[in-house]
Design a protein that fits this description.
single chain; alpha/beta; Rossmann fold; 6-stranded mixed sheet; 4-stranded antiparallel sheet; 6 helices
């Protein structure tokens, strides 16, 4: 069986010569179907860069990225955009919602971009938001939603095109501890693992270790396995 995501010796370097900074250094990573993986590490260790490359938002300096068995790191911009829409869902710390759109319109938008429109998109968006406890907030804009509600809308948007892989960058960073834990348990257990979906989470939040199958540590651009119990000190 192909991995949902595979990185082979992936590196990213910013700048050139003596001023060059290596954000990631020959990183290898394999994500299996239905697996929930946390990537932790100190600030500036290259976590967001790694997630951006895995999500086809940032090009690599070297190495290979495969999504569902297809090498994608050197694909055309249009094919990479297609893969992002069809196979990847993104959840960000800052939600990244369209402030002028309602909750249901924010979710419909990603489906529209993938070619799903009209009643089919609306029904799918309504169903996802109801599953996430927002059935009574469909017509509210982000300004009228709490942080936890905004993140639930962002999760519904990430799930809209039924991707096999969700990438989350500090998804609890703007939420209080109780809300953050509730939202991530809902994503990872109710809408992730139970549906065979893989989820990769970059986080500083140690509480999320309880919902992960694996915890990895990224420092100085290099990724290593941990036992999930002991982690180096995070700064």
């Amino acid at each position: 069986m192909d991995y949902v995501l595979e990185l082979q010796d992936v590196s990213k370097t910013y700048g050139h010569g003596r001023t060059a900074v290596k954000a990631n250094d020959r990183v290898n990573l394999q994500i299996q179907p239905g697996e929930i993986v946390l990537i932790m590490g100190p600030s500036g260790s290259g976590k967001t860069t790694l997630l951006s490359m895995a999500g086809l938002l940032l090009s690599t300096s070297s190495g290979i990225i495969c999504v569902l068995g297809e090498q994608i790191d050197h694909a055309s911009a249009s094919h990479r955009a297609h893969m992002r829409l069809k196979t990847l869902g993104f959840v960000f710390q800052s939600y990244n919602l369209m402030e002028s759109l309602t909750a249901i319109e924010n979710v419909e938008l990603v489906m529209n971009m993938a070619g799903v429109r009209g009643s089919r998109a609306k029904e799918r968006a309504r169903e996802l938001l109801a599953m996430l406890g927002l059935g009574e907030r469909l017509d509210h804009k982000p300004a009228d939603l709490s942080g936890g509600e905004k993140q639930r809308v962002a999760i519904a948007r990430a799930l809209a095109n039924d991707p096999p892989l969700i990438l989350a960058d500090e998804p609890t960073g703007n939420l209080d501890s109780k809300t953050g834990q509730e939202v991530m348990e809902l994503l990872c257990c109710g809408l992730g693992r139970d549906q065979g979906r893989s989820i990769v989470i970059v986080t500083h939040d140690h509480r999320l270790r309880s919902i992960a199958d694996r915890v990895l540590w990224l420092e100085d651009g290099q990724l290593s396995e941990t036992d999930g119990n002991y982690l180096p000190e995070m700064t």
